[in-house]
Amino acid sequence: MRPRFRYTPEPVLEPVPGCEWASKMVLNPAIVKDPASDRLHMLFRATGPWSRKRKEGKHDPYPIFLGYAASSDLGRTWTADFSRPAIAPALNERYEDIYITDINGNRVRDYSNGCIEDPRIFPVEGELYLSAACRLFPPGPYWLIDREPPVDTRNDYVPEWVHEGDDPFRVTACSNPTVTVLYKLDLDKLKAGSYEEAFAYVCPLTEGYVSDNRDAFLFPNKMLIGGKLQYVMLHRPMTAALFPQGARAKKPSIYLAAAEKLQDFACGRVTHRLLATCIFHWEEDRIGASWAPLQISAGEWLVSYHGKKDASFGYTQSFMILREQDNDFPVVAHRCSERLMYASQEWEMPSDYPTPCLFTTGGIVIGDDLIMSYGAADQKAGISWVNFAELVEYIKQFDAEGRKVEKKRY
Predict the structure, then answer these.
(1) Distance between CA atoms of 332 and 276, rounded to whole angstroms?
(2) In 259-313, which residue ranges form alpha helices assigned H by DSSP?
(3) Rounded distance, CA 81 to CA 69, Å?
(4) Strand pairing partners for 404?
(5) For the CA atoms of the chain, what is the radius of gyration?
(6) Taking the chain, what is the end-to-end CA distance rounded to the nearest angstrom?
(7) Distance of CA 183 to the CA centre of its chain
(8) pTM summary value
(9) Using 50, 70 and 90 to split pLDDT, how confident is the model at 142?
(10) What helix, strand, coil percent values describe the chain, rounded to 5?
(11) Which of 40, 176, 265, 396 has the fewest CB atoms within 10 Å around its CB?
């Protein structure tokens, strides 16, 4: 039987008029359960016109921030702190100022300088981490690119010095792609409102000068791959042709990456493997993983993923199950060919933006339920619930290529 997804009948969070950093969008939330209680904690993406940094002749910039919210009723209602962002981009402009101190006390380039968006929260080796798709510089109202006629404001705030050299940092700055950045997250500091102490910059996980790359997060434990215990990451490069089996992928697809150290993922000391590419009609344009894998049993993992067909059809969510292999990357064992989650309620439908979008960025299991947080209409946030065991059982009715497998009868 197809699992039943329940949804909040209205947004749990939405833009706040007059809040300069959250007046336009509040969406794509990540969630985590408090280890000491059933209280849930959320980081959400938000933006608004940042007029204090506006340049003459340009639209207002729209830097992207992460805000904090909490729920005491398993996600049905949320209390958000709109007094200030939980973490904000520095918005420096000069070449010599775009630095940050990392978790080891080193002064490193700050790839989160312009935007910090689409958070995912997950454990790795018993520690809590946050990944976010970041940009060096904030865009203007980037959604205008989908209007007729299109208006491209995405690079309005990229400074002139990016053209003065060809080192990897300047190349990244010039195209201003998303670079996924990893932070260590102190949940106690976050929920206490000590935001300045809650996030420690670890390192970039992707190489911006190679490709725009997002939807990146890690499995909770290392795996034996190539004779070495390694961290394993899911990611989605925009330019698949530059990665292994890119000719087969053709479109932005889900990749795995393995590295012995977290810092190795963006330094070339990494091995990539194509995991899944677009095969169904509702994912013709791209696919990407949605949040960090959840363990089903020893060696089996549930992965939520999204597909986009085009600007009018929009984003859909479905699921696959990965199976670990001996001394090698996991592989897809089951993949649901059906659209299991998509915008359907009136409040989830696009208004300011043309593309229908239901986009999950958080998934946790409490009791019998998988609780998922999602962005809708590129502007608001909602919560969904589904029975975890029923969902897994349903996904296992499909093979790795999405074909429905009939159960054998004896």
Answers:
(1) 8
(2) none
(3) 6
(4) 398
(5) 20
(6) 20
(7) 13
(8) 0.97
(9) confident
(10) 15, 40, 45
(11) 396
